[in-house]
């Protein structure tokens, strides 16, 4: 018996070693696959545009320069657009998450008579859309065109976010709310003192979703506020920079770029270099915010898995 146990132990040890080896190799390959495009883009953004035309840029810039970023930020609208982007992300995320959480708490209460009707009405909006023209006419009648609030109010409540938060709140012990009601706490007190603090993981997760969506949005600027430069966003301005670069490149600048590359001039840009710099500028804020929400994000992904 002792010999069999030793053989079984050795067998498990070999199996564990093989599994760990394969797992480590797979994870290393996964990291390389995920990081290489980001590092390559970063290297291209720091490389001289005329040298990038030659190709062969991988993880490190071959001819270091900051001119690509200088070209992007020399646009007079970039600073103002960046401010508007930050404001719409902060305000839109704060108000949007709070409004969605309040609606989610309301329809999660068993004593709310219209909870099923309200939930169905919200869900139907995920499948039915009036279309772009009626939506534009509605926003015009509400006086939102040409204002900052066109970025906030139309997307204030996200149905998916409401459902996610509601599922989490429904998993909380109902005895907590019953005890609070017995002590005379109203619905606002129960929401702000009990539901909201306990729902912090899912709130952080939804906040990340909303913040990314607000930061990356540019189409609403194009549709509603393209005639108001003071309300432009960073995403929209960078899209215009990229479009202008592509137009200039297609109009005959390709030959000039290649000629400059042969001459070694660095004070020029190409669509590839602008695209790389734009991607880095747009991605850095979200990359900086994500580590602070990561632990809550992981917890939030398990919502609904355990019911109280």
TrEMBL record:
It comes from Pelagirhabdus alkalitolerans. Signal peptide: none annotated. Keywords: Cell membrane, Membrane, Transmembrane, Transmembrane helix, Transport. It comes from the Bacteria. Its main location: membrane. Residues 78-293 form the ABC transmembrane type-1 domain. The chain crosses the membrane at residues 21-39, 78-105, 117-136, 148-169, 190-215, 274-293. GO terms for cellular component: plasma membrane. Pfam families: BPD_transp_1. Belongs to the binding-protein-dependent transport system permease family. One of its GO terms (biological process) is transmembrane transport. It is found in: Cell membrane. It is a multi-pass membrane protein. This is Putative aldouronate transport system permease protein. InterPro entries: MetI-like, MetI-like_sf.
